[in-house]
Amino acid sequence: MIGLAILLVLVFLAVAAPLLTTHDPVQQHLSTVLRPPSLEYPLGTDYLGRDILTRLFYGGRLSLAIGFLAVAIGLIFGVPLGAVSGYYGGWADLIIQRIADILLSFPGFLLALSLVSILGIGLQNVILSVGISAIPSFIRLVRSSVLSIRELTYIEAAHSVGTHDAAIILRHVMPNAMTPVIVQATLNLGTAILTAAGLGFLGLGVQPPTPEWGTMLGEGRNYIFSNPNMATFPGLAIFFAVLGFNLLGDGLRDALDPRMKQF
Amino acid sequence: MARYITQRLVIAVITLLGVSTIVFLMLHLLPGDPARMIAGLLASDQDIARIRIQLGLDKPLVVQYLLFLGNLLHGNLGISARTSDPVLTDVLQRLPATIELAVISTALATLVGILAGVIAATRPNTILDYVLSALTLFGVSMPVYWLGLMLIIVFAVNLHMLPAAGDDSSTSFILPSLTLAAFSVALIARMTRASMLEVLGQDYVRTARAKGMRENRVLLRHALKNAFIPILTVIGLQFGTLLGGAILTESVFGWPGIGLLLVDSIFARDYPMVQGIVLVFSTLFILLNLGVDLLYAYFDPRIHFA
Questions:
Q1: Collapsing DSSP states into helix, strand and coil, what is residue B75?
Q2: pLDDT tens per residue, range B139-192
Q3: Which of A179, B232, B239, B259 lies deepest, with the highest CB count within 10 Å?
């Protein structure tokens, strides 16, 4: 539950940002450039005189939202494809699985990076790229749960009373296949935030002056001599968000399905 | 056995073909004119027409695809839009730096990860186990690019012990390798611990102990060898993450490998180069997984390769 606590704090700081700070996250103040930490600027200011802490609060909004939206894309496409693949088998299964195989053979971050390089830089494309690269793992996971559920007696019973395939999948198969999906989605939120922030770090994500943790870290790398806080704290924020989702995901897995306890 | 190997090889070839197809389609699936995309916003109509002919974009899609595959078979990855060198030449020149980083990091991660995992598994629920578990959890949650910057701040900026960037000095590889290895160390340690704990509860381990075998020998000969299959799987899978991490690590440290070249090429809109590097990265990953599949046979003769 430490994971949930960390996440609630981060979400609260992001949502309540305007109440917690009076500084503007974007407005430049060239008279207060690269200040060290002080009462007014608890973490100092960045190279354009903006309060780093304020930008962290506001940055959380985008970084967390990108994570949620990207995983939503992964779920919306991955779960139905995985269900169809596992339930019907045959050609549909073969084709869907080969596509998943191929997408999974682009090593991790590379798929999102390639997609962004084609779609172009910017918020929407980052969400889309990270979302698409989350699809194949959900396809795999849902397919394997559906495969085992398909053979169970209650599915046979549903068939024998003449229930439609669509109704069987929606009412009988999916509710029982969702546990690992929920766990995986939680863990994927962490991965999605890491990937999106990585794109931001390279300068391919959310564009300045909009605050986003990865982009802030990328800007901070140029100032590690004059104000290391610019790089240190956005990274810490990403770290805590990912840690929170990892802890929550592990906790959910242990609570929902002790048999899955592997790692 | 031969059938298993053949089957793995066929799957690897099919996957490679699929990956090449996707890399080829990268430029064509999008709305808009690829020639215009490559040329950039400021290009004149003549420039765009020239690029279209130069890249064969005036031919039908199927013809382009077959030409693309034909060229791949001859090791022709196209011409860089930025340097006008063959893509393959530039990639081959930068590849050794990436391989060096990947090999050192994987070796480090395997060694440290397995050691930490075995130590934790042999002392379950002790303070040492908890500390190692916490460290590995931190390791898998940490952004590599951030860890890299923090190492630069501590060891290069503050302590002046190691170079911050480049590969000019004999100690240049240390910080990038540590950065890149961190995630994999954590992942391998977690898998080793889980896998060892399971194996240590088996009857044959108790038998080995009961007949008075030394504990080290029990751990290495009986437990670790049997726990190794899931560990090997993780080592193979993490290699993908590692290659992805290499792109970011090289960018942090200005390490002159193909990851840095990829990022530079994306910014320069050098699409032939981007396609070539993506293809090389994926091929490396596929070949490595093929290697892991084949190693299974060695570690578990029971796998009879359905």
A1: coil
A2: 989 999 999 999 998 998 888 878 777 777 777 888 999 999 999 999 999 989
A3: B259
Beta carbons of B244 and A108 less than 8 Å apart: yes
Tell me which residue has tokens 């992942």: B187
- The answer to whether residue A29 is domain-embedded is no
Cα nearest neighbour of A225 on chain B: B157
Name the β-bridge partners of B79.
Answer: B86
Helix (H) or strand (E) holding A260: none
Q: Which of residues 240-279 of B touch A (CB under 8 A)?
A: 240-245, 247-248, 251-252, 262-263, 266-267, 274, 278
Q: Which residues of B touch A114 (CB under 8 A)?
A: 23, 26, 274, 278
pLDDT recorded at residue A262: 46
**Does A122 reside within a domain?**
yes
Distance (Å, whole) CA B147 – CA B175: 10
Map tokens 């090791």 to a residue: B75
CATH number of the domain where residue A186 is located: 1.10.3720.10
Answer whether residue A30 is part of any domain: no
CB-CB contact of A51 with A41 (8 Å): yes
Beta carbons of A221 and B282 less than 8 Å apart: no
Asked whether the beta carbons of residue A98 and residue B149 sit closer than 8 angstroms, the reply is no
| The residue count for chain A | 263
pTM listed for this prediction: 0.88
User: How many angstroms away from the CA of B298 is the closest CA of chain A?
Assistant: 24
Domains, chain B, with CATH or none:
2-73 (no CATH), 95-256 (1.10.3720.10)
What lies within 8 Å, CB to CB, of A47 at 6+ separation is A33, A34, A219, A222, A223, A226, A227, A230
Interface test with B, best of A2, A94, A110 (most B CBs within 10 A): A110
Task: Express each pLDDT in A83-106 by its tens digit.
Answer: 999 888 889 898 999 889 888 888
| Structure confidence by residue, pLDDT tens digits, B215-273 | 777 887 778 887 888 888 888 878 888 888 999 999 999 999 999 999 999 888 888 89
**Residue A135 included in any domain:** yes
In this complex, the residue of A109, A232, A262 whose CB is nearest that of residue B244 is: A109
Decide if pLDDT at A48 tops 90.
no
Say how many domains are in chain A: 1
Q: Could you report the per-residue pLDDT of B34-75, keeping only the tens digit for each?
A: 677 666 667 778 888 877 777 777 778 888 888 888 888 888
Nearest CA in chain A to B268: A117
A125 within 8 A of A116, measured Cβ to Cβ: yes
